[in-house]
Write a structure and sequence with these properties.
The protein is α/β, with parallel strands linked by helices and 345 residues long. Helix content is 26%, strand content 26%. The strands form four sheets. Strands 3, 5, 6, 10, 11, 18 and 19 form a seven-stranded mixed beta sheet that branches. β12, α6 and β13 form a beta-alpha-beta unit. The radius of gyration is 20 Å and the shape is globular. Bound molecules: zinc ion. Residues 95-96, 98-99, 101-102, 110-112 line the site of zinc ion.
């Protein structure tokens, strides 16, 4: 099968990679779309420092081609036989199911997790990928392939909105140009929050206008410490620095994208900050103003599929370019400049 592989130095298309063999409890999935975002391009840019080699790509929609069940499969797992032939998405994070955090209901913080296409496990920019049956979520016919490819990013946006649901927040600012920033703004706007996006490109402002979301160029941000909540989706120390200048005393800063350092293998020390996070941030202002700094990651992927089914959030307007798998290397180059590049597999 064809697969887009990263060897720690460069990306190349393997025209005849061996078809992955699903282990018991896994499915073989044929992706139809793969969405490239900042985490994918950051991986390739970091090269050997990323500590990953294998098939890239962590966001996809595809069809289940084969299912491998252990002979002693428990009923819940055996019931997943019905996924054969279905269209599915998956959370890229694969939990062990056995560690203390998995057992206490926090599988997303699993101590020995892997992330497809990013940490410890082959990704989905290929004609076939093997994935645990437990990670798959079916996609209703009403949701297109293009829409479903955004499920993982959308799950993170919805999760941020849930974390901020009970926050006293009349004024919310979202920082960033990524799909995550714009989906988070849409998710917060649904909760009737007065949301404003600070972005640095004109096409982002046009999208916000289409959705009725206020927006301003990043450089015009008034640093008046008057925002109840600032959501930083820039994944950079300059974004955090700006967030701390925008948020009011006792306000909240939500950090949405640690993309320049993440994803890192669980259970190992954090790698040295790279790229956008390398510059130190003076946190004095956070202490003086008693600012709460919270982290946020992806949420349940089924919630995102539900929101796509309800047509609650516009994702397809975010697609900036599309490429065939054979042009996968060009697609990665384009993804460095343009958010939300789609690969047609
Ligand atoms: Zn675990």
């Amino acid at each position: 099968v064809r697969a887009l592989r990263f060897d720690g130095e460069s990306l190349r298309l393997s025209p005849a990679a061996p078809e992955p063999a699903p282990a018991p409890g896994e499915a073989l999935v044929r992706p139809s779309r793969v969405l490239l975002g900042p985490a994918d391009t950051a991986l390739v840019q970091r090269g050997a420092h990323a500590g990953f080699s294998g098939v890239v790509g962590h966001q996809f929609v595809g069809v289940v081609k084969k299912i491998e069940l252990p002979s002693d499969a428990p009923p819940l797992l055996a019931a997943r036989r019905s996924l054969l032939g279905k269209r599915v998405v998956a959370s890229p994070m694969i939990a062990c199911g056995a560690c203390d955090l998995c057992r206490s209901g926090l599988p997303m913080h699993c101590r020995s997790r892997t992330v497809i296409g990013l940490a410890g496990r082959d990704g989905c920019a290929a004609e076939c990928v093997a994935l645990p049956l437990s990670s798959l979520c079916t996609v209703p016919d009403a949701v297109s392939d293009d829409e479903a490819a955004f499920a993982h990013t959308l799950s993170a946006a919805l999760h941020a909105a849930i974390l901020l649901r009970n926050e006293h927040s009349s004024y919310v600012t979202v920082l960033g140009d990524s799909a995550l920033a714009l989906l988070t703004a849409q998710a917060l706007a649904r909760q009737n929050k007065a949301v404003r996006v600070l972005s640095s490109t004109a096409d982002r402002s046009r999208l916000c206008e289409k959705w009725g979301i206020k927006n301003r160029p990043l450089e015009e941000a008034g640093r008046r410490q008057d925002q109840d909540v600032v959501v930083d989706c820039t994944g950079s120390s300059s974004g955090l620095r700006l967030a701390l200048q925008l948020v009011r005393p006792r306000g909240t800063v939500l950090l949405q994208s640690p993309l320049a350092v993440a994803p890192f293998p669980a259970g190992r020390p954090l790698p040295e900050p790279a790229g956008a996070w390398a510059a130190p941030v003076d946190l004095t202002i956070a202490t003086v103003n008693e600012v709460r700094i919270m982290g946020s990651r992806d949420g349940p992927i089924a919630d995102a599929v539900g929101a796509l089914t309800d047509r609650a959030i516009d994702v397809v307007s975010l697609i900036s370019k599309r490429f065939k798998l054979d042009d996968g290397i060009k697609a990665f180059d384009a993804a460095r400049e343009h958010p939300s590049v789609l690969l047609d597999i």
